[in-house]
Design a protein that fits this description.
2 copies of one chain form a homodimer.
Chain A: H1 7-20, E1 24-25, H2 40-43, E2 52-61, E3 77-86, H3 92-102, E4 112-116, E5 119-121, E6 126-135, E7 138-149, E8 152-164, H4 165-173, H5 195-213, H6 216-235, H7 239-258, H8 264-291, H9 297-306, E9 322-330, H10 335-355, E10 363-368, E11 371-379, E12 386-394, H11 395-398, H12 407-416, E13 424-428, E14 431-440, H13 445-459, E15 479-486, E16 489-490, E17 494-495, E18 498-499, E19 503-505, E20 514-516, H14 520-530, H15 536-552, E21 556-558, H16 562-569, E22 575-581, H17 591-601, E23 605-609, E24 616-625, H18 638-662, H19 671-674, E25 678-680, E26 684-685, H20 686-704, H21 708-720, H22 728-732, H23 739-747, H24 752-760, H25 775-794, H26 808-821, H27 828-837, H28 845-865, H29 870-880, H30 884-899, H31 903-919, H32 937-951, H33 959-966, H34 970-979, H35 987-1002
Parallel strand pairs in A: 1-2
Antiparallel strand pairs in A: 2-3, 3-8, 4-6, 5-6, 6-7, 7-8, 9-11, 9-15, 10-11, 12-14, 13-14, 15-16, 17-18, 19-20, 21-23, 22-24, 23-24, 25-26
Chain lengths: 1016, 1016
């Protein structure tokens, strides 16, 4: 093995590489910046229309990441290598991969992946879409297409590549942490130094300074001075000096933050102030470049003007039906976008073909992260000719009385391209009109497809889409090639600056990257040889069987992980499972931590001891993007496994570090820190929230039947329920919230019941998750959700459209699920009122009502989704919306009643009572029933039956109780209507009868609104 | 011609080069620093005993150098490339020169010179010795051996090489200013950018910010906060965070300074505060490394332990007298040190040979900046044997009464290595002692020289000397080789880590760099072939003739420039004159500016029109270090001339810029800026000073006979005399003070007389310079000097030893010269008193007296140096010290009298009167003369003569008038002493006679003290 590059050689190699690509090599900035993005060489230069290609090192300072030099990967200063390519050169991924090769990373020996990761900096008014780049499981680069900066669109789009030099060096040199990175290579016998030699002391000292020494008052004063100075510079249009002060503001804020000195309201204010300054800086910069008339634009514009315009060839007509193959090649699509795009194609392509009048056979749409492929069998060589009768003006206006064509008649004929003589008069809808028979000749399929396919691609929509080049079209990720073949004929069209043709690309790093194919059969053969599995189901099956085999070979089995499996399936084109291992001592970590790290962070399949899903084995299985099949199946993979082993080792070491560190304190000791975690600006910190939840649990204790120990447990759990959010482990992996809380609570000597309630209060976390099993857990869970919902609605933050940043849908769904599951009698109205009482801001009746509506909507959906009759749901919800638990039970009961064969005898009896009331004049039924005023015996009889029914014991909201009580009355009801004329002349008699029926109608109040039922 | 490197490739090449030399490649610092030295990779890492080799770019921020991007070379940000080599690798100059070659600079085609330049940063408690490196006249690098940093010695010494990247790029790319520097090279057709593209806007904006926008109050607050934060860090021993804040202090101070916001007392206070912080940072860093037990030291120490100790061979004895050749090879010696070393060798080598008892012929000592060479003819092959009689104890104690040797006798014999029988008794100084005849065998010359030569080298002393390697010896600059040959035999000795031998080095860049020679003859032949002129006189002559020829070839002539000639002679080993030219339009600049730039900055000979020294031609002559003779005489030099042309063009463009800029204001407008220029902390600003000078001119106007217009002129000139110090041109070139003042005064509409007086007030500037020719000029000149001297003495800043930072010797000398030249009657006592009255601090009688003494000392020296008799000078100075003008005249007069043949008749007459008075009892002559009490006619006669003499008109202080008046009295004096017994019995008579003689003695009071004359 040859000597790997030392740290400084990595930098020099990257500088050389990018210089050769035409990048200007720039220097780190003379201010403390959190990332290379803040260097004006990025944050300003990406603005405006001018081209800009630059590369530079940036030692990036993030006070909060300081770990006193004790963490292998986390440092207050890490080294970034920043590249900006503007405009997109068309192949930035390939350039990037070549740069890795220049560092000695052979991509064929490693597993290199582009994993969706989008970037946003509200403080800079900036965002972009892109990926993390993974090298054998380690994130080594951030790759982003900058869409917006300084609050304005980045146009042309800039590609930002940010290498994590420390991580690359660790991976490349196969060392265990930053202190071991070999920095230089001294000549014979000299002292080679490590990053630890030169930077460890700095990590210790700066961490100490940032966390323990920095003087808050002084730093706040500095911040103010910087801000004022920045404003003064902006007033004079001094962009760069102003930017410098914004950077000083930003760093000072970061130090204050790591000192834990930023209060809630302050934080928002700080961000607002910095955002405003950044916006003004960007604005001034743009103005300035405009005034300078964009000096760097000229040559570039000239070069593009020189590009020769060519016309597309017109495809010839084919003779016989042929298969149609369309491949849309892109940079790695996010998992969700891949599925969405395939789904859209499956709908739209057949529709398009039909619209184009192209006969065709079956349509098959499949894809991988890099290609969306549609295959249509037997597409007709052309459209059939079309004959259409077109309606013209009325016959008497097209021809005069003499039968001579008028001007209107002539005009119509001309406009349709037919002779006057060919016009025919027809009777249409009872009128007489001239008509023309218009014949449209069918065009060759290739021609109409060439015209239509751009529209097909353009019609694909994504949650987030991006622009990347001059074409300014939007897509999930940049499109890089288009293939369209009808039989053996290429369908020429242009889209997104690409020209469709017969070239495709293979699996990354496998030859040939570009390949011309003859026809669909050759295409599928090519993919097969490359080991690419186009069909997601095939990939999924391959992964499952490979994972199972690898797990079995160490006496284990993989759990059923449908979510992970689906995700991984759409992360690769060619799945190759590889098994790695980790030090069994890590098995002492909480199981959920291990699983979380493996699944969430690394997309690994954990391996359990055969026969269960509780005991982990010290193995994991990763799915590399390598051919398991095809002409060059991937062998070996030791390097990939070694890299992944290193990553998981570091991750587990981190987790060990965090858990050890967390365990130094009792769970309750983390509470004060919650004061620095914002729940929401106007609703206060997480500490405020957990206090409110505690108060609410207390208020609801009676309702929820909590007494004695259970009540004490619930209160203690409420107090501690959010404490783990301040622990290292949960800060690091949010998905472990509740899990770590339970763990740490037990460690801290809390009772198992409290620990369990802490864990349960997050339940259910996702659809299908377990629900709180204990009363205290349930109480805290309800209180937490009620507080969130009432508070956020009161703060005017109700979810709108698809926006739901506080996950209120999930909160409301969980709330409803819990209530439904227990069929709990729980009235949301007083509960929301109780919640509102503790809020730091007023909750108006309207917001409370809106909140209730929102929860009811979830209830309605849940009931409908469970397959219940729509009318039954509506009937119950109309009456019991405020009490989901009872409503749920009622709907089920009602549904059962409706399904009874005698239902047609029950409902009408009740309905007659109600209907007549409703048709009466307002107020006519609003008198007390006066038994002495009854005229007919049927009245008496009904009244007696009613009294019986009214006295029957009924559970609140129970449809069964209602109807079982009502059933015996039915004969009396029927007789009543037989014998009695309700609408008697005598008002008193009439009113008394209506009042009697009103009492019957009222039996269903608060239980069900039968009028919503079909057949009412 | 191949493409020259672009800016980023220059950086990459240097990084590669130094990485290959084992340097760690570091990054620019994340703070605004004024120089790479402030990066902790230098300022801290050079401290302590550990080795450290590092190289990095440092964009250096110097607010005061901002020029709004309008100056070709001056920017608020320039790019340094910093290299630290610690310890000295033994060949840092060679490594440096190789790095230039790596940039494509062929040293044989260029003129590369090491020009003395020492570095000091009081704020960092740091200093070092070294050079500016010149490339074809352009300073491109600072090369320093760091002697002290953070107030502690740098041990081992660190070599600091600071490349000026912008200048190197300008030279290499042959462009005209920083904006034209090609930064990168875009691939085919792309946009290559210049430094102007990426940095010009920054220069404009930052200059504007630093000079016009930065808010003084806010910056002062920032400074205070930084300082407090630095102190807080230091209290916790957080070295790096503290250093960061010191850097912030430093930058903030610089910004305040460029805003003109630093007052006088403030400036000193700021410096003191920063120095103290820096000191504490350094101290803490050293402590820290010590506590870490110097982790980088081990391997290095082990490596040095492994070095094999060898012994020197013992030289054999020679047979016959042979020439001795000694060559001490060094890095380029400063001009003064070269002369001093040669002078010392000329004295010490013969003395050493004599002391070593080595007979020898003539000694010749010569040298160049790189070698000190001694050549001694006919050195004896060995010492003669030595016989010495050694005195022992007294004979009667060495032998007992029986003649037997005592223990003392035996001991003496043993100690001298002789037999008892060989002891002899001799009579010495009247006593009888045993003696031994001790014979010392002569040793071979080579042996004794080998032992003695280290001491010879070590004995050389310099004004400033330095250490550079483990040997820790001191020298002017590092010694790099030693040659010592006696005949053909090498004299082996070790010094400064070098072993002397028979190897020498040739002219830089000329092969062979190292060369073994057989004997002295071969040595001189070698030098001749190399074109090296060892003899300074030969170099001087060569320069003179080359310069004359080159000047003549363009119809010009060079001025006689002895100072420049001497300096240039000692800057090169092989002088090669080259003629360059500049744009004749620059001739419109003030002549003094042009000459100053050429001579002072560039060491060029200006070329005047033939026949005068007033009209310049647009040429200059530079002396390159290239062989004009020898086996490979240098031809061409176009590249060198082009480079120098560029430098002079840039310099003149700068001057043009400055003068144009200065001319935008009237001279008087610069006065307020003088408030920011410190004269001396306790004595205020230059503005304060010029106000004092004006007041003093007013006070002295009467004394100096200034009236009417002359007085007004003097006062106006005094007011404006320092104004030009605030102009760009003078800030840039201090030597133009007065000259620019005159120029700008005329431009501003001041009268020619005022302009002239402004110019003249600096006269005389050096020995032999002109003196003020006008009364106003003279008045301001005197007042300026009186103010300086009285003020500095009052402030306790009298010069001590060789220290004279305020050039008070020069001030006093000038003062005296002016007074002498005009034979002015000017009493220093009231003048100093008047000066004292305007000072901002009290001037005690003692400091005033000391000041007067200091001036008188200069007077005495000047008179003596002009060849006047010592006794005459003393006689007059004793009487007229306070009035140098009259004293000077008086000394000349007295000297003439003393030279008269009849002087032996004049002096005794006067002397008799004085002597008898002095021998009388105190008070005896202190009575009024009572004519009625005269007894003898001779008394009467003398009294009458005295009255005559006393009434003769006399100019103050005039010896002539005194003696001419006295001459007629001499017969009466003689007669008086013949006839009269002065010391009569009768006290009244005696006292009267003594009083008469006292009146005669008093004639000389305030004129001369004859008693100081020889023969008195």
């Amino acid at each position: 093995m040859t000597q790997t590059l030392d740290f400084q050689s990595i930098i020099l190699s990257l500088q050389h590489f990018w210089a050769e690509q035409g990048c200007l090599i720039w220097q780190p900035y003379y201010q403390q910046v959190g990332a290379g993005t803040l260097n004006p060489a990025t944050s300003l230069r990406v603005l405006g229309p001018e081209p800009w290609n630059v590369a530079y090192v940036e030692p990036s300072i993030r006070p909060d990441d300081g770990r006193y030099g004790e963490n292998p990967n986390r440092m207050q200063m890490h080294y970034q290598f920043q590249v900006i390519l503007k405009p997109d050169p068309g192949n930035p991924q390939e350039l990037y991969l070549r740069s890795l090769a220049a560092l000695g990373i052979d991509p064929r020996q490693h597993d290199l992946r582009f994993v969706e990761d989008n970037w946003e900096s509200p403080a800079l008014g900036a965002w972009g879409l892109g990926w993390e780049v993974w090298l054998d499981g380690q994130e080594i680069t951030q790759f982003t297409y900058f869409q917006q900066a300084g609050g304005t669109p980045v146009d042309p789009v800039a590609v930002e590549i940010t290498y994590g030099l420390d991580r690359i060096a660790i991976a490349l040199q196969r060392v265990h942490g930053f202190t071991e990175i070999r920095w230089n290579t001294a000549p014979q016998g000299g002292n080679s130094l490590t990053a630890g030699d030169v930077n460890l002391q700095g990590e210790r000292e700066h961490s100490t300074y940032y966390f323990d020494v920095a003087d808050v008052e002084r730093l706040k004063k500095m911040y103010d001075l910087y801000e004022q100075e920045a404003a003064a510079c902006l007033d004079k249009k001094l962009v760069l000096p102003a930017h410098d002060y914004v950077l000083k503001c930003s760093h000072t804020f970061n130090v204050l933050d790591s000192r834990g000195a930023i209060g809630l309201t302050e934080r928002q204010a700080f961000f607002g102030r910095m955002r405003e300054l950044s916006r003004r800086v960007a604005e001034s910069y743009l103005e300035q470049r405009q005034q300078l008339e964009y000096p760097w634009l000229q040559e570039d514009a000239a070069a593009s003007a020189a590009a020769v315009e060519t016309t597309l060839p017109s495809p010839a007509a084919a003779a016989a039906p042929a298969p149609l193959l369309i491949e849309i090649g892109s940079e790695e699509l996010p998992v969700g976008d891949l599925a969405a795009a395939l789904e859209q194609l499956r709908t739209r392509l057949p529709a398009l073909l039909d619209e184009l009048r192209l006969a065709h056979g079956p349509v098959r749409v499949q894809g991988t992260p890099r290609r969306l492929v549609a295959y249509v069998e037997d597409v007709a060589p052309g459209q059939p000719d079309l004959e259409q009768v077109v309606k013209g003006p009325p016959a008497d206006r097209a021809f005069d009385a003499l039968g001579q064509p008028t001007k209107a008649g002539e005009g119509f004929a001309r406009s349709k391209g037919v002779e006057i003589a060919d016009l025919q008069v027809r009777e249409i809808d009872g009128g007489r009109y001239v008509t023309a028979l218009v014949r449209q000749a069918g065009r060759p399929a290739a021609q109409v497809l060439a015209e239509a396919l751009p529209g097909l691609v353009a019609s694909l929509r994504f949650d987030k889409s991006m622009r990347w080049n001059r074409s300014n079209v939007a897509f999930s990720r940049p499109l890089r090639w288009l293939l369209a073949l009808l039989g053996q004929q290429a369908i020429p069209f242009e889209y997104a600056g690409l020209r469709a043709g017969s070239r495709t690309r293979g699996l990354r790093f496998y030859q040939p990257e570009e390949f011309t194919i003859q026809d669909a059969a050759a295409y599928f053969r090519f993919l097969e040889e490359q080991g690419i599995l186009l069909d997601a189901e095939a990939r999924k099956a391959s992964i499952q069987s490979q994972v199972a085999a690898l797990a079995a070979s160490v006496g284990g089995q993989a759990a059923d992980e449908p979510g992970l499996l689906a995700e991984v399936t759409d992360l690769v084109e060619a799945p190759k499972a590889l098994r790695g291992s980790f030090d069994p001592t890590h098995l002492s970590l909480p199981r959920e931590v291990l699983i979380s790290v493996m699944k969430k962070h690394q997309r690994y399949f954990p391996v359990f001891k055969r026969g269960g899903q509780t005991e982990l084995l010290p193995y994991y299985i990763t799915i590399a993007n390598k051919p398991a099949t095809g002409s060059q199946p991937f062998e070996g993979g030791e390097l990939i496994v070694e890299g992944n082993d290193h990553v998981i080792r570091a991750r587990f070491a981190d987790a060990d570090f965090f858990v050890r560190d967390d365990r130094k304190h009792k769970l309750v000791d983390f509470l004060p820190r919650l004061g620095t975690l914002v729940f929401q600006a106007r609703l206060g910190s997480m500490l405020d929230k957990s206090r409110r939840v505690t108060a609410l649990v207390e208020a609801l204790a009676g309702t929820l039947g909590l007494e004695g120990e259970a009540r004490a447990t619930a209160l203690r759990a409420a107090e501690l329920c959010k404490a783990d959010l301040a622990t290292h482990m949960v800060v690091e992996m949010t998905s472990l919230q509740g899990i770590m809380g339970r763990e740490y609570a037990l460690q801290s000597g809390e009772s198992p019941a409290v620990a369990q309630a802490i864990y349960e209060h997050y339940l259910p976390r996702y659809a299908g998750d377990a629900l709180p099993a204990t009363r205290p857990g349930l109480a805290v869970s309800l209180a937490d959700r009620l507080d969130s919902l009432s508070g956020l609605f009161a703060a005017g933050l109700a979810p709108t459209g698809t926006k739901d940043p506080f996950a209120q849908r999930r909160a409301a769904l969980g709330l409803v699920q819990i209530l439904l599951a227990g069929e709990m009698d729980f009235d949301l109205r007083p509960a929301l009122q109780a919640a509102a009482q503790h809020l730091p801001l007023p909750a108006s009746a309207e917001t409370q009502a809106a909140c209730l509506d929102f929860i009811v909507e979830r209830l309605r959906n849940l009931l409908l989704e469970s397959g219940l009759r729509h009318d039954a749901v509506e009937a119950v919800v109309a009456a019991q919306r405020h009490n989901p638990g009872l409503a749920g039970r009622a709907v089920h009961q009602l549904a059962a009643w409706v399904a009874r064969p005698d239902w047609h005898t029950i409902l009408p009896a009740y309905a007659r009572c109600v209907r007549i009331i409703r048709s009466a004049a307002p107020g006519e039924a609003a008198v007390p029933v006066e038994p002495s005023a009854f005229v007919e015996p049927a009245e008496q009889e009904l009244y007696a039956a009613l009294q019986q029914t009214e006295q029957a014991p009924r559970q609140p909201g129970s449809v069964d109780d209602l109807l079982n009580a009502f059933l015996p009355m039915i004969p009396a009801v029927d007789r009543f209507f037989e014998k009695v004329l309700v609408m008697a002349e005598d008002p008193q008699v009439r009113h008394n009868r209506l009042a009697l029926l009103g009492r019957i109608a009222a039996l269903a109040e608060g239980v069900v609104d039968f009028s919503r039922l079909e057949g009412f």
